[in-house]
Amino acid sequence: MVTENTLTDTLKRRLRDLRISVTDRCNLRCTYCMPAEVFGPDYKFLPRSEILDYEELARLARVFAGLGVSKLRITGGEPLLRRDLPDFIKMLAAIPGIDDVALTTNGILLPKMAEALKEAGLGRVTVSLDSLDDETFGKINGRGTGVKPVLAGIEAAEQAGLGPVKINMVVQRGVNEQDILPMAEHFRGTGQILRFIEFMDVGNSNGWRMDKVVPSREIVQTISRRWALESAEPNYQGEVARRWRYKDGEGEIGLISSVTNTFCGDCNRARLSARGELYTCLFASEGADLREPLREGKTDGELAELIGGIWQRRDDRYSEIRNQHTKGLPKAEMSYLGG
Ligand code: SAM
Ligand code: SF4
Ligand code: SF4
User: Fold this and answer.
1) CATH number (domain holding residue 209)
2) Residues contacting ligand 1 via CB (< 6 Å)
3) Percent of the chain with pLDDT over 90
4) CA 1 to centroid of ligand 1, rounded, Å
5) How far apart are CA 68 and CA 86, in angstroms?
């Protein structure tokens, strides 16, 4: 029998963290994630019947918790578009063994929802924001949406007690590298933690090229020329962001270097798509279907065996072997499997 204590993959990594995508839809069209040319008016999103309902998702989350998962993150697409999300959060927060339920969002709907999410048991929020300049941000998000609604979302989350909010900024060469310092300045001293993410080659449609990646080390150099930084210890093993602290005590930043400084060795995350497929890597081309076994009446024990077996066979380390064997392979879109 597979148990939490014995479950490791072929590279001795445990299963600790589950990201649940609750929808493949989004109210933005970020060029690096769901470019409008591809995700246009005729794009066929998943119909309702294909998407797992909250009972089904929560049941799977319970099975994952039995296998060692203690952290859940709700994502998408844009998770706040899914109806009655606080009801789902409540179900997740009640699962024994789950000590952290978090959410990644573009923030636009937070002013409406932050309080209900907090009451339901949500612990933390990460909000994505790539620029403080309306024009740049509007171009990146593909909808011309300005910065104000996102800042209002961050504020609403803080007011509701969901802080300190983390801010995710995807940095692209020639697109928003000029925003690194203004973003750092804005969030310094607020207690909010700005994290710079290297532009990744997820999916097949975002036109990724290595020369569009701004390496984390360059970002650290840019910021430290203005404010002295010192590196800080990880908060826990497997933390993806490398931490840097402002020496003047004004807080910290994080760097997520998925391209130039990979962290597959510690990767203890699984992803569940809205359709109920299990992905063991962000760059996988396909997931394992859990919806059919779930709907055809498998017991929790049988589902645990199935999931545990998949984890035991896992050998993913895409970022470490990027460009070696992986060129040209189709990958699932991030908005679909959950970023
Ligand atoms: N819609 C929500 C949001 O934007 O926060 C949640 C889903 S989104 C797919 C999750 C995170 O993935 C966001 O912070 C986004 O910036 C990041 N992301 C999406 N595509 C990316 C890419 N190609 N490279 C790096 N990060 C990416
Ligand atoms: Fe939507 Fe988030 Fe993807 Fe932007 S990054 S298109 S907000 S899912
Ligand atoms: Fe984990 Fe895959 Fe990313 Fe490596 S490439 S850190 S295995 S998700």
Assistant:
1) 3.20.20.70
2) 26, 32-33, 75-76, 78, 104-106, 128, 168, 170, 197, 199-200, 202, 206, 334-335, 339
3) 85
4) 36
5) 24
